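for the record, two folds in this file. i put them one after another cuz i was lazy. first one right below, seq on top, structure tokens after. the second one comes after a little note so u can tell where it starts
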Amino acid sequence: MSDESPWLVVGLGNPGREYAGNRHNVGFMVADLLASRIGTKLGRAKRVQAEAGEGRLVGAGQHSGGPKLVLVKPLTFMNLSGAPVVSLAQFFKVPVAHVIAVHDELDVPFGQVRAKSGGGEGGHNGLRSMSKSLASKDYARVRFGVGRPPGRQDPADYVLSDFSSAERKELDFLVDRAADVVEAIVLEGVEWAQNKYHGS
């Protein structure tokens, strides 16, 4: 694998206005923020059910020529996310080690963002679809904590509901932090990102 290989950053979510504010769509929110940071717009990809955009990530001390990012929002609905991801990974010649999935995570409390490399999918249909299509689980994940549903609410209903009014007050800050974690993984690696962001 060449360090010059692009990075494929996949924001997981569901297409459609009715899902836009759902907990399950936080990956889309992070992808949109990253697009604005690197000065690109996400547009409909050719022959693939996804929105995508490309740009260079400029790190501290750099002015240009940073790693290339390909940002992706699959438009297939969550449980079929893998097909457009693998198509774009093949087209841009992105190795699995340079794929990052950004997703909501029930097992992480709201207010926390966690970096992880490989491992299971924790019942997340978007991750399950990606792992199957990529024939590998060895990609990085940025896990955006949404916490467990209150009472006996079904987890599926919970993630398909919007953030609460109290949560929305912190949401912009946390989406910003998740984008920072993605950039840290690209520039410094998962372990470095964990050391920097997991303690706070």
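(here's the note) second protein begins now
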Amino acid sequence: MLRRLYDWTLSLAGRPSAPYALALVSFSESSFFPVPPDIMLVPMMLARPDKAWSYALICTVASVLGGILGYFIGLGLYDSIGAWLFQLYGLTEGAETFRHAYAEYGHWVILLKGLTPIPYKLVTITSGFAGYHLGWFIVLSILTRGARFCLVALLMSKFGPRIKSIIDNNFNLVAALAIAAFIGGFVAFRYLF
């Protein structure tokens, strides 16, 4: 199933709608959708390395805009939607500790968590829930998400053919590692905060 998704995403890269689909996934992932944009971003960059940097920019802008939605979910709707999302992911206990960490480490929390496999939506919702300064949240989100997606673009533009060969030849292992990193992000959030 994952192999078909990978192949489909490679074929999607040539379509005119590809950047819109990527933007939608990036926006959604920052506020409520559980799947990271890398699922689309990496195959699209592999299929179209000439567009790696524009795909990184699309992901950055859409992710920050989605992050602002996540922030407002946390700020105004935590008791209903925000709490439901944290409960859905089994992270309600970690959310309270994370909220208190903002009093002392808010800038660092956003910078570090935006670069890790810890789902960014948890950072955005908790930033709103904690009442973190919106302006700083946006600036730090641009920095961290931009750095994250530009790093992927740099790797794909420099080592794309080699990475594609590794993925094609070891797809099951690569998929298992990606799933482990995804699940590990949720586990890390739950137990570190």
